[in-house]
Fold this sequence. Notes:
Radius of gyration: 24 Å
Distance between the termini: 19 Å
Structural class: mainly alpha
Number of strands: 0
Amino acid sequence: MNELPVGRRVAQWRLRRNMTQQQFADRLGKSKSWVDKVERGVRRLERVSNLREIAEALRIDLEVLLAERPGQPDPAAAGLEGMRAALARYHVEAATRPPDVAELRARLDHAELTYRHARYPELLARLPGLLDAARAARAARPGRAADDVLVDVYGLVALVLVKVDQGELAWLAADRGMAAAVATHDPWAVAVATVPLAQALRYGGRRQPAMQAAVVAAYRITPPRNGDAPSGEASLRGTLLLQAALAAAGRGNGSVARELLDRAEGVADEGFGRAAVEAARVVAEAALGDVAAATVRHERLTAGDEWRWLPPEHRAAYLIDAARAYAQTGDMLRAGRALLDAERTAHGEVHDRPTVRDLVAVVARSAAAPSGLVRLAATLHVA
């Protein structure tokens, strides 16, 4: 029954209670036609109050009526133990056959694609082995290729740990990635390592060092001698400036945040994503307390097509930030819709992040929340 649409579940529970449609309608104070349309899926149950009345009339808990897959274990728990164990290994065992760096790069590329689709439990299962292999490869075949892989793996580990609310572990991984990058004496490698470091610092409330690290790294990227920017240079610089801007906004420093956002927009003229800058402006405005302006900017951004070029993880994470902004204004209907859009965009961004589940719970308690959000809350067992 858990896989059935809500209307079908209503019908099955009504039959279990030995009620006709008319008897059930009388209990609800509705017409028999209304009940029939609900059970056939013709009439959608949009109001939370109606869902609660139906659950009460059927003598079941709301989550029993709505939950799609109750009793699901936390898929990230086992992966986190493996990740902790990998980060706790300080000595690399000599391998009889050292890992091939090119093969590791291919595995890393696949893992990064998995991250862009917000498949965090899958990543937590894969990354410990990838981290061990990257460390072994660097020990066996020192050189820039192995260094780059190790820096990137540590960075990806940090980003995933931030997503699953493991802030201290994320900082540890990001710090180790930074140490590996600094050892190369290459500003580019340091800039790459600074992106996850800034995210880990921001997540842990260390916004000032996050802002400083990101700004310094952005302007230490070595300009090319021939004047032609290397592939990804504008994107990396722009990403660092956005990290710095969001850190400044989180500290309440609006003038610095807006200046950094303007600089990032200048980089966008060189090929960095304008949608990424505009999304960051929404998040920054909400953090600075200008929630009304943030929601107006959000609606303008999502009305266009350009923002859909952002990776699914980025879009879903941004929609969650927008949901928080709507919730701040008390607009739980739009907050719920933003959360549902985030789930459709990248399922794991909602289902596998504890802080997002908390937000779903808060919004779902409002009578104005869309019924789909209430079903989601029941599925996540936060109703």
